[in-house]
Amino acid sequence: MSDKRVQSDSMAELKARHSSKWRRYAPDVLPMHVAEMDFQIAEPIKAMLHDFVERNDLGYLGPIPELGEAFAGYAKRHWDWDVNPRNFKIATDVAVATVEFLRAISKPGERAVISSPVYSSFFRWIGEVGLTLVDAPLRHNESAEDAPHWHLDLQAIEDAFAAGAKYYLMCQPQNPVGRIHTREELIALAELAEKYGVVVISDEIHAPLTYRGEKFVPYLSVSDAARRTGVCITSSSKSYNLAGLKAAILVWDSPEIAELVKAIPDDTHWRSSILGAFSMTVAFNDCDEWLASCLATLDENRHHMLAELHAKLPGVVAHLPQNGYLSMWEVSALNLGDDPAGAMLRDAKVAVVPGPDMGGANYKNFVRFNFACSKAQITDAIERIAAIRK
Ligand SMILES: Cc1ncc(COP(=O)(O)O)c(C=O)c1O
């Protein structure tokens, strides 16, 4: 990829983009909400897309064994996880994979557990398939200065399982807090899942964006109990910024889960995009250098964001994420009323995700901020918010 660091497009180029991030709000609003990056995508993926278009190769998606091989190679290189390259199924995106899997294996009214604060769509997916949502919130350890601050609450999870829940929808790493659940937590979770007959759906879409010095732990890698209880759902869409291309994979490693996955309709494959599936193959095979460069930029950005918060929005509480480009801020010090995200949008022209979208009223003093942009944009957003604090 040469010596050029992955970086943001210019503001003029960004404003000309067609994606939701740049179309949802008026042009004077800084979009720091939806999980898209402002960066240039990897050259090998661009080349593949150009090549498919040049050769008029835009038909339906057929067999693609090379995708399983690519993911298995990636998992081994980055996480020392042995994946059977044949144990995967394709779906349109992580949302469709999760919803179709749950639809295929569940009965309406059964209970599905999540741990808030978490990606807002989890709530909708569970509702869409008629399941009843149970929240076992993360524990928040504000006093620990240097430690990760959000943890799985295994007791709350066990209570929910013991009360009859059948599914646990996990976010590993956890959007929006950037927390990687540890091997020990996952081993304990898998034991609980096995004890209570719960299926764990591990959404690992953010995993490749793990910072140097941190270690991502795939759920299926931790134990036989995890393999017997869990499916991993992932995609290159988040880490390589390809959300519009539409493809994701479900990965499993036990006869028990293979049996469940069979219930997903074969049509899910046909509803996925040829460009999405082949670009995912290229991402997992050929883009390690781009990813390292992207992470180097994000690493600078996460430190820049915290330094700017400290200097210009003292009192706002945020932590260095272990993974990803999203940050959860506790903003009560700003005195922006009951709807801080609404005030930021209305008065500062900065769009962030409101805390309640990620788990209800408990998070009314939180917002989620996306820092996958230029440093200047991070500073601009923070200065705009500083100008409206009361
Ligand atoms: C945890 C998580 N899962 C899934 C998605 C969406 O993935 P997809 O576009 O493949 O449905 C996101 C998007 O931000 C996410 O953060």
Which descriptors apply to this entry?
binds pyridoxal-5'-phosphate, 13% strand, 390 residues, 2 domains, 40% helix, seven-stranded mixed β-sheet, Aspartate Aminotransferase, domain 2, 15 helices, three-stranded antiparallel β-sheet, Aspartate Aminotransferase, domain 1, single chain, alpha/beta, 14 strands
Distance between the termini: 47 Å
Task: Give the name of the CATH superfamily of the largest domain.
Answer: Type I PLP-dependent aspartate aminotransferase-like (Major domain)
Q: Supply the CATH architecture of the largest domain.
A: 3-Layer(aba) Sandwich
Q: Describe the strand arrangement of the main beta sheet, using strand numbers.
A: 2-10-9-8-7-3-4
The helix count comes to 15
Structure summary, number of beta strands: 14
Largest sheet: 7 strands, mixed
- From N to C, what is the helix and strand string? HHEHHEHEHEEEHEHEHEEHHHHEHEEEH
What portion of residues belong to β-strands? 5-15%
The coarse silhouette is globular
> Helix share of residues?
25-40%
Bound ligands, each once: pyridoxal-5'-phosphate
Structural class, from helix and strand content? alpha/beta
CATH topology of the largest domain: Aspartate Aminotransferase, domain 2
Q: Report Rg.
A: 20 Å
Highest CATH level, the class of the largest domain: Alpha Beta
Overall pLDDT confidence:
96
